[in-house]
Write a structure and sequence with these properties.
This protein is an alpha+beta fold and about 280 residues long. The protein has 3 domains: about 60 residues, Structural Genomics Hypothetical 15.5 Kd Protein In mrcA-pckA Intergenic Region, Chain A (Roll), CATH 3.10.290; about 80 residues, 2-Layer Sandwich (Pseudouridine synthase); about 100 residues, Pseudouridine synthase. Helix content is about 15%, strand content about 35%. The protein contains 6 helices and 18 strands. Strands 7, 8, 9, 10, 11, 12, 15, 16, 17 and 18 form a 10-stranded mixed sheet that branches. It has a 4-stranded antiparallel sheet with strand order 1-6-3-4, covered by helices on one side. Strands 2-5 form a two-stranded antiparallel ribbon. Strand 13 and strand 14 form a beta hairpin. The longest helix is centred in the first third of the chain and has 8 residues.
């Protein structure tokens, strides 16, 4: 369990204090129905109770939804505190369990490391996408940290792209498919900003630095495939498979503000299989 304390700097209700400090209405409803989850001086109080300046309220967070643990899995830890952990996710590891990957996901590893704690990833990478994956250890941290979270991706696309640009095209689920997406006027708004880092020695590939204005499923993969530059190794969206057998996509950096108010920047080095493409 995790206990977090908040102090009133003006007369207010308990609920107003919690909302002001980033506690979501959904979490407040859950806490209201949990014994001693909201307390003052060790005594349970109601969210409608009034507080004076200097009064402190403690919320106690607990979890009940866990995944099957798997301690045989490994992912490097890039950062950790009381509220979050940041993994360097390898390829061929899904973030969430699925029918084909029930016990070998990052979620299964997390639950082996933190029994009795729900798995809350704040960014969801595809199974073969590598790099920074931030996971919250409690609901308050998930809501608080996600508001400030910014990510930078690197991708290698087939062909040569010069300079920088922005792709602003809506994305929808492809007809007849649960997984595939495509650009469609019927889809949701999706914005991808990119900047060329370098081209490979032989001109076959371009390394791009990418920032997302939105977070749609397969957004980077769909957008670059649509404009004629699919990611290397991305069989689903038309990328060449000669030199790499998975999409050449990597979450290289994440910045966020912790529950304690400290700004953190976490980085993950570009994997060797992506580096190798730039020598071809």
């Amino acid at each position: 369990m995790r206990a977090i304390e908040f102090t009133a700097d003006t007369p207010c209700t308990v609920e107003d204090l919690l909302v002001t400090n980033g506690v979501s209405k959904r979490l407040i409803r859950k806490l209201k129905h949990t014994q001693n989850a909201i307390s003052k001086n060790g005594t349970q109080i109601k969210t409608v109770d009034m507080l004076d300046i200097g009064d402190s309220v403690v919320i106690t967070l607990s979890d009940c939804k866990m995944l099957p643990p798997n301690s045989d899995l490994h992912a490097e830890v890039l950062y950790e505190d009381e509220d979050i952990i940041v993994f360097d996710k390898p390829s061929d590891m899904p973030v969430h369990p699925s029918i084909k990957h029930y016990g070998d996901s990052l979620g299964n590893l997390f639950c082996a490391m933190y029994p009795d704690t729900s798995f809350r990833p704040l960014n969801r990478l595809d199974k073969d996408t590598t790099g920074v994956c931030i996971c919250a250890k409690n609901a308050f941290a998930a809501n608080c940290v996600s508001k400030s979270l910014k990510k930078v991706y690197y991708a290698v696309v087939c062909g040569r792209i010069e300079g920088k640009g922005m792709i602003d095209l809506p994305i929808a689920r492809a007809d007849g498919s649960i997984i595939m997406r495509h650009v469609s006027n019927e889809g949701q708004n999706a914005v991808t900003e990119y900047e060329t880092v370098s081209s490979s020695a032989g001109g076959r590939y371009t390394l791009l630095k990418i920032k997302l204005g939105t977070g749609r499923t397969h957004q980077i993969r769909v957008h670059f495939s649509h404009i004629g530059y699919p990611l290397a190794g991305d069989e689903m969206y038309g990328g060449e498979l000669y030199d790499i057998k998975r999409q050449a996509l990597h979450c290289a950096k994440a910045s966020f503000v912790t529950v304690g108010g400290k700004k953190e920047v976490v980085k993950s080095e570009l994997p060797d299989d992506i580096k190798r493409l730039m020598t071809l």
